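Sequence in, structure out.
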Amino acid sequence: MKQATLADEAAALTRAIDLADGRLSDGPITAARQTLQKIGVRSELAPDRTVVALMGATGSGKSSLFNALVGEQLARTAATRPTTRRPLAASWGEGASELLDWLDVPERTLRPDDGSGLVLLDLPDIDSTELDHREIAHRMAEVVDVLVWVLDPQKYADAVVHQQYLQPMAAHAEVTMVVLNQADRVSEAEVASIMRDLRRLLAADGMESVEMHAVSALTGAGVDDLRTRVHAIAASKKARLARAHADLVRAARHLDAAAGGAAAGEITAQNHTRLLEASFRAAGIPAVAAAVRGSHIRRARASVGWPPIRWVARFRPDPLRRLHLDRAVSTPALARTSLPGPTPVQEAAVRASAHALVAGATRELPDMWRSAIQQEVESRIPAVVSALDTAVAGVDYERDRTPWWWKLMGVLQILLITAAVVGAVWLGGLYVMDYLRMPPPVTPMLWEVPWPSALIIGGLGIGALLALLSMAFVRLGASRRAGRVARRLREAVARTIERQLVGPLRTELTDYEYFRESLASVLQSNRRFE
């Protein structure tokens, strides 16, 4: 797999910052942004130069070591008090002026160009009694490419150095060197013992791999080797990249710590189902399904009902019309029904189930991140409840679908009632002729029943029987249609809930997962800059 470049790591940290903005505390986010800004500026200022800074406490012989490495008495030295008040730079070759301006190093000297691109700094003491001296030392520790910590046999275990500087800079072990100066003041055996103890302390600081040297600026012991090593580091041109990588790792660790290292959560099926069921009830789906069934039966009765009484159905109100669901919707987004709004109990059920959904999915997330998501969901609930009505209004209620057999049965019913009327008229005519003592015509017979009576009995009886059978099938069809519409209603409500509640929650969880992945791409990049 291709190793991530420094630009890839910076982009990953930028993504993590953007995702965490407003979701985590401002401190680590601001620090990470400053880190990215610093890396960006440093990459444009003399990228071929390597800034190595000597840092240490009062009396460590830092300035003496600076002079020894430079080979000239540039820095003032004293045995009892700090003498470095402002950073002093020695630059091997031209081209570092703009970089030193950015570092705010006014005192500088030019050394013969040896191709290394080294810029060596002598900084104020980190434990100086002067506040501005300590601030300069702290600021420079954050921006130079390589840190050389100068310790002495008496104060090599100083808590100020280890707790306030080395431990926080554990990610920078690859661009850190520890030099035990004044080795001439103790015996060789004591130097070896101090170096072992110092290695133990550094391991406790998280810097077990840091490079260590024992030197004496006074006698020159070990100085040549240290000088060679410092120039070699500068000549490799990799220290700046290593420092930038370490800064990115430290910023990512702080963001990871702010997030508590929590993994992303997930939406459980149980909580999702609970939210949907509460939303179905709040949307009035049972009432709408009942209205669909009633409207279907009403329409069918007017088509296939027994003709003598089917007209009564037309006087009954259409349940769908009362809900304003009897017409096609041209603009679904603006559609509304006349359904009564959800009751306080139903709305509270939606709210409670939404909170349960969020709480279950975000229980492992950082407090601020989880709280932000919960507030977002809370603000969406009124709009969600309102959107349920729009979802209901936009469903296909099959208003224009008429079963084929309704027309067939309607025609048959008309024929049957017509036959009954013909039979009645025929029978009436026979009665009038008999009343007028007119010779009765021969009445045809259907088996033993006169045709007029057969037409009346058959037309009314068969028509009534067919009406009863038809309404039985109508009720079955009404239940099926109500079921189909109810499924569409549930799907429409589910889409609304997905779009306005569940979808945004999934996005938040995905963002957090992306945040974790972005940090991991920085923290797990085992880059080496030998």
